[in-house]
Design a protein that fits this description.
- The protein contains six helices and nine strands.
- It has helices spanning about 20-30, 65-90, 115-160, 160-170, 175-200, 205-240; strands at about 5, 15, 20, 35-40, 45, 50-55, 55-65, 95-100, 105-110.
- The protein has a five-stranded mixed beta sheet with strand order 2-1-7-4-5. Strands 3-6 form a two-stranded antiparallel sheet. A two-stranded antiparallel ribbon has the order 8-9.
- The longest helix has about 45 residues, at about 115-160.
Length: about 250
Amino acid sequence: MNNIVITFENNVKKEYPKGVKLKEIIDSVKENYSYEIVCGKYKNQILGLEDAINKSGVLKLYDITSIQGNKIYEKGLMLLFEVSALKVLGNNIKIKIKHPVGKGIYFEIDKKVTEENLKEIKEVMKQKVVKVSLKDKIVSLGYSLLRYLFLFMVLTFAFPKLLKHIKTRYVYNKFGDYLTTSGVGVLGMFMFPIIAILLLISNIGVSVGLIMFVLYIILIYMTTIVSGYVLGNLIGIKLFKKELYK
């Protein structure tokens, strides 16, 4: 059997491939959590994001507001600081972690640290965090592209007339036409929610404002579909010298 069943705290069960990593499970359920998830507890063991699960069982997830999650998040920050400080100040220094101070941690370093050193350490910490998040974003983007590819396949077979209408209406021959349409779309994306918020605040158009928010969400999804279709068609023309959608 290549799949396992993970049971969450709310008794919801989800099926995953054997050997699934904790970070992959988190990606599939993170919309149900208000804060960032940093670790999990499985069969009385704390799991890191890269740890794999090979058997079915109960999984408890901890976000940064939980005691366990906050401790791990804090230790991660301390490790990040130590690695960054060693890079800036040199590998021959000694760093001692003493005790919490308010919402921070008190460190002792056997070397004089200037304000410029602190700025450099902070910058190195930011760079290391950005590198990790960028990798996650690329992976997430890949999954999103696959989902949209599947969506376009379904639309192609289910609504051929709709795609033909999109092609007729939004596939242009001049680059300037694309800029004009994009400019109008961007302006609408900013103005639409602003008008809806003003209506909600005014108390005279609450229902209209709520309807506009719902329409705004629907329009975002529709815009994504149309944009993906048009871009795919343009890429097909440029790379393969033929239209991908006819």
